[in-house]
Amino acid sequence: MLTKRLKGHTGGRRLALGLITGTMLGVAGAALAADSAMERMQADAPNNWGKWGDGDEVGALNYLDADQVMRGTKAVRSGETFTLQIPMTHGKGPVFPGRVPTMHYMAQDEGIYASGKSDVLAGGVKFSDDVAFMYLQGTTHVDALAHAWYGDEVYGGVSADSTIHGHTQADVAALGERGIVGRGVLLDVGRHMGNDSDRLAPNTCVTLDDLKATAEAQGVTVEKRDILLLRTGSIPRFYEEEPDAAWDAMSEPGLCYSQALVEWIDEMEIPAIAADNLAVEKVVQQIDGDTVIIPLHGALMRDMGVVLTEIHWLEALADDSAEDGQYSFLFVAAPLKMEQGTGAPVNPVVVK
To answer: Residue 1: inside a domain, yes or no?
Structure first.
């Protein structure tokens, strides 16, 4: 199912990189424009800096206390499990423009013995070994809270200088140490809004009303402190070769910024949002006349400490949930503890 590769992907990735670079450089100095837009948009928005004390590095994951873990276990009915990471395959995989897929190489295998370059171990045992080069966000991953910011401060009001040569504050290792465990809820907006395709069309904005309508159609209630899983149907396009399956990072569907959405996430005390696209949100958005790139990364991560985790494989879970009507479950995940890292791979587990 996941062994196909989109024809012409390399060229498509380069095109996407050119588009995002052009967008960033061509809209009145997008970095500065986006910063000023974010400052205006977020002037009166929710902010959790200091809510969990000075030096907090895990933000809204603080909501996931022991009671929330137990609430998650109560959602388990059958014990059926689903893993949500995409395959890590040499040279293949959907990645954000500017990154490259995982590179995987064998450091030792049967060839080294067959060529006489290494002796077997005492007693006759042989072994293999391998190495990988990868972007830490080059597969299913969790973002560190300091991964994205606007202005001169990252989450918690810490100087953005703390990101230089590695994150000294709010790195992904802090999230790996904490872990993400609680009641998860799948919102299959792709199936609800995608008509016959069961996936959202490119460039689709997912709004708060869309989330609520999807929950209602599924017969599930989003409760306080739920971990949200958003299925758009985007990532599967990368692995398909049908003529209508073109995959483009710059046109992926996703959440779109609104004050109402940000306030709802705050009121619901949502600790984390996972999605089957590259950024959880639509990458480039038009907001009040401004072009803003990944605004929800600024609003949710930088200001509220909401953890974002991306590039999930949700197809098997979504199909099963559509069949049995169960959209809530126990969600368990912990990114690798990459100290000072901006993100790290993760293979989340859902237990229904």
So the answer is: no
CB 22 within 8 Å of CB 29: no
Instruction: Please check whether residue 33 lies inside any domain of the structure.
Output: yes
Q: What is the mean pLDDT of residues 238-263?
A: 85
Residue 130 belongs to domain spanning: 102-134
Verify that 114 and 160 share a domain, yes or no.
no
Contact call for residues 348 and 228 (beta carbons, < 8 A): no
Q: Is residue 245 very low, low, confident or very high in pLDDT (cuts 50, 70, 90)?
A: low
- Of 38-42, 236-240, 245-249, the one with minimum mean pLDDT is 245-249
CATH code at position 192: 3.50.30.50
233 and 262 share a domain? yes
As beta bridge partners, residue 132 has 104
Contact status, residue 158 vs residue 310, Cβ threshold 8 Å:
no
Do 172 and 199 reside in the same domain of the chain? yes
**Could you report the per-residue pLDDT of 164-204, keeping only the tens digit for each?**
999 999 999 999 999 999 999 999 999 999 877 899 999 99
| 188 CB neighbour count, 10 Å cutoff | 28
Q: Would you place residue 3 in the very low, low, confident or very high pLDDT band (cuts 50, 70, 90)?
A: very low
Residues 258, 296, single domain; the answer is: yes
Pairing mode, strands 205-206 and 254-255:
parallel
- List pLDDT tens digits, range 128-157: 999 999 999 999 999 999 999 999 999 999
Contact 2, 140 (CB under 8 A): no
Q: What three-state secondary structure class fits 191?
A: helix
Indicate whether 48 and 141 sit together in one domain: yes
- The pair of structure tokens assigned to 150 is 């606007």
The answer on 170 and 110 residing in a single domain is no
- Residues with Cβ within 8 Å of residue 126, at least 6 apart in sequence: 110, 113, 120
Residues 271 and 230 in one domain: yes
Q: Considering the entire predicted model, what is its pTM?
A: 0.89
Indicate the residue type of 220. Answer: V
- Examine residue 2 and state whether it is found in any structural domain, yes or no: no
What total number of domains does the chain contain? 2
Which structure tokens are listed for 123?
A: 């007693």
One-character DSSP codes across 10-60: HHHHHHHHHHHHHHHHHTTSHHHHHHHHHHHHTTTS---TTTT-TT--SGG
